[in-house]
Amino acid sequence: MCEPMKAKLPKTAAVVVTYCTGDNSDLWLNLCVLLTQFDNVFVVDNSPEDCLFGLIGQIKEAYGNRLNFTPANPLGRGKERNVGLAGAQNIGARLALEAGAEWIAFFDQDSCPSMNFVSSMFEYYSALPDYEKKRVLALGPRIYDVQGNFFCQHVVGKGRVGFRRVHFRNGKGLNGLLFIISSGSFIPAATFRKLGFFREDFFIDYVDNEFCLRGVSKGLRIHVVRDAVLFHRLGNRKVLKVASITMRPTFHPPWRRYTIYRNRSHVWKLYWKKVPSFVVFDLLAMVYDLLRITTTEDAKREKFLSVFKGLFHGLKTPCGRPLPHLSSVSLPGDD
């Protein structure tokens, strides 16, 4: 008896942005997992030195040209080779589109998807009605924080200015999310044709938030798929108790505090009318973040000076203009 032919899956690609830290054992495993699920994997390296060629060469011996390695800025030296997360993701996305990818997933070097990641994404997407498929901005996985040993909540819009943080209870997926993080995001090629690429002047922080809000403000929708899981490290976090309140400080250095607050305040300026529920959510998130710095982190003075300078630059920069480059800004601790 003849079996029915299985529908051919769309062509997929994974983009991994790397920055060499010395211990590449996680990267080895993560790339092998990706190569078992994606047609092509594009590694875009922001490292200041050529330290991944040996690892990449060994993996290519097993998987061939399906693994592609590209220095983000091969003509630069040292820190000049780092074009930022957004710039590296754009390089990878363009390479993936040139290779014919119909869906592109983005991953940090320390993120690892479940073995059923791609199949779960397509199973969920195929069950959507046609009108909903046309509105998909991105699909996201459930995020499991391997340091904190918990599944992260998702932020869903509620009315024009409200929001709610939710965990999965029932159903195959959630929709109507305000944003998802870039690592693990599974984006159809059509989204890039509609929205363009990531904002490179953001460099690293709020790149994913801005891209999501750009689409949400145009009527596109973000879904999270229950059966697709991403095992992820959410920064250099520790769990601390302050007056019976659980805090998870990130210990970001002053320059990261600057980019976070420069970018977040500029996002408020761009989207407070279009997606006010996100701005309400993020203002509350800012209060919590400032409380963490005040109660649990070191170098408070330097970090708060960077916060205020970032807020000022983000709000001062006119909409449609690029944000000031990090190299042009004097920050505490730069000397």
Verbal overview:
There is one protein chain. The chain has 335 residues and is of the alpha/beta class. It folds into 2 domains: 12-232, Spore Coat Polysaccharide Biosynthesis Protein SpsA, Chain A, CATH 3.90.550; 240-325, no CATH class. The protein has 10 helices and 14 strands. The protein has helices spanning 25-35, 53-63, 84-98, 117-126, 130-133, 189-195, 207-216, 254-271, 276-296, 300-316, and strands spanning 12-18, 40-45, 67-71, 103-108, 112-113, 136-145, 150-151, 154-158, 162-166, 173-175, 186-188, 221-232, 240-242, 245-247. The strands form 4 sheets. The protein has a 5-stranded mixed beta sheet with strand order 3-2-1-4-11, sandwiched between helices. Helix 1 (25-35) packs parallel to helix 2 (53-63), helix 8 packs antiparallel against helix 9 and helix 8 (254-271) runs parallel beside helix 10. The protein is globular. The N and C termini lie far apart (75 Å). The relative contact order is 0.12. The model has no long low-confidence stretch (mean pLDDT 90).
What are the SSEs and their pairings?
Elements lengths: L11 E7 L6 H11 L4 E6 L7 H11 L3 E5 L12 H15 L4 E6 L3 E2 L3 H10 L3 H4 L2 E10 L4 E2 L2 E5 L3 E5 L6 E3 L10 E3 H7 L11 H10 L4 E12 L7 E3 L2 E3 L6 H18 L4 H21 L3 H17 L19
Parallel strand pairs: 1-2, 1-4, 2-3, 6-12
Antiparallel strand pairs: 4-11, 5-12, 6-7, 8-9, 10-12, 13-14
Helix pairs in contact: 1-2, 8-9, 8-10
